[in-house]
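Input record (one chain):
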Amino acid sequence: MRFALPVVFLILLTAVIVFSHEGAPVIDDAPDLSLPVYSACAADADCGFVARPCASPAAVRKDRLKELRYYYQSVRRPVCPAETPPQEAAKAVCIENRCTARAEGDRPEETK
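The corresponding structure, as predicted from the sequence alone:
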């Protein structure tokens, strides 16, 4: 009995450790670029381009470029999968007082 009790305890402890292992939760702490603090503009000159490594390109206010480039190059890059698809070339334009990323070939919609 003295020998069996520690052996059973070790077996149960090993089973709990092996089968209760879960992957670390993924926390998406990326800034919400749709907020006015990141996207409000008055003209195209107010907008700048941010290449996000794990998502599509984004246009943001120029006064926030330094902060966001640091985030996407230093904080977010190590989390991205290796097989991230290549990003399209884009430019930042101001449409309806919001910075928007457009592909180089896109033309603004004409109003009638």
